[in-house]
Amino acid sequence: MKIAIIGTRGIPNNYSGFEQFAEYLSQYLVNHGHEVYVYNSHNHIYQEEEWKKVKIIHKIDPEYIFGTFGQFIYDFNCIRDSRKRGYDVILQLGYTSSSIWGWLLPKKPVIFSNMDGLEWKRSKYSKPVRYFLKYAERLAIKTSDFLIADSLGIQEYLFAEYGEKSEYIAYGAELFHEPSEQIIEEYGVEKYKYDLLVARFEPENNLEVILDGVVASNSNRVFLVIGKHQTKFGRYLKDKFKAHTNIRFLGGIFNIEHLNNLRHWSNLYFHGHSVGGTNPSLLEAMASNSFIIAHNNAFNKGVLGEDAKYFNSSEDVALAMALKKSDHLNFLESNRNKIDTSFTWNIINKKYEDFMCSKI
After folding, report:
1. Which one is predicted more confidently, 152 or 190?
2. pLDDT tens across 39-79, in order?
3. pLDDT one-digit tens code per residue, 126-182
4. Is 258 in contact with 178 (CB distance < 8 Å)?
5. What does each C-alpha distance from 150 to 17, 24, 240 come to in angstroms?
6. Are 197 and 224 in contact (CB under 8 A)?
């Protein structure tokens, strides 16, 4: 098949979950004989026309000029280009800035859309923007041939809200087998003597709630925060917690070996995501032997079940800070078994390939 992947800033991943997923899936599909094209922002750090046999199509992305509005222009440019390529399949990852152009999608290819999370619930958006995102969600459903839900919660929502069936396919992760204390030494920490939070700097990821809890606990243990913080919200958080020297903002880290080691050797790993489906960073934490303290919601519980501790408030976080990884090794083993049996990238990628092939 000739397959296009749109809706990401591009590969190799230098941003977030969809980009990482596009990396793994595109390589898998190419290695299984498919011709794969991934659309990249023109200012992506990777400027070649091919990456590991995956074709890269760079399109103008003026987000750096216009902000969020630039994403709509970028998606328009990608969809317009797709009309001349003769694809068999177009896989759309998300819909927030692309579904208004759904009427421009070419007629020949079968359109599969990963519906992402409940974007219109994200607290960072104003009421008018959230109303638009609900409208964009409806448009994506209308202009797609088949829907993919990355969590059972999203699958249930799509059927309850729209009466639409969707294929449940989660994200993936690979078990981490080769920890190295030398790598975490580069970050000035020692094994099991620090706690960790990895997240995009968005309010609905509960970074402020978690950090408020860390401060309230009076713990002096090092607390690492990983994620791009060159944003308005990031600047706010750094300023609010600047007096607490044990809290260290490391910025974005995209070296998966470094991330996995930091997860593996941490004492507590906080996962604050409250909106969306199966989050990639959560699976990676499970695969890396992290002791997870997760926000209490259906999406996280649908993956972790009883193999984590949960929080609703900063008070809960403060109490959790007294926990020790060594007392919950059964959680770690159970979560790794889940990855091995249900969430490896080969399992997830094959599900995508099989689903797409079955509908052509």
Report:
1. 190
2. 999 999 999 999 999 999 999 999 989 888 899 999 999 99
3. 788 889 999 999 999 999 999 999 888 889 999 999 999 999 999 999 999 999 999
4. no
5. 12, 15, 34
6. yes
Q: In 10 A of CB 347, how many CB atoms?
A: 15
pTM comes to: 0.83
Q: How many CB atoms lie within 10 A of CB 258?
A: 17
Q: Which of 124, 67, 73 is nearest to 98 (CA)?
A: 73
Euclidean distance between CA atoms 197 and 285, whole angstroms: 10
Average pLDDT for the chain: 94
Angle between helices 280-287 and 329-338 (to 10 degrees): 120
DSSP string, 4-30: EEESSS-SS-SS-HHHHHHHHHHHHHH
Whole-angstrom distance, CA of residue 105 vs CA of residue 112: 12
Alpha helices in 169-278 (DSSP H): 181-185, 207-216, 232-240, 256-265
Joined together, the tokens standing for residue 260 give 């996995």
Strand partners, 196: 224, 269
Comparing CA positions, the residue from 218, 219, 319, 208 lying closest to residue 274 is 208
Which residues contact residue 233 at a Cβ distance below 8 angstroms, ignoring those fewer than 6 apart?
124, 201, 202, 203
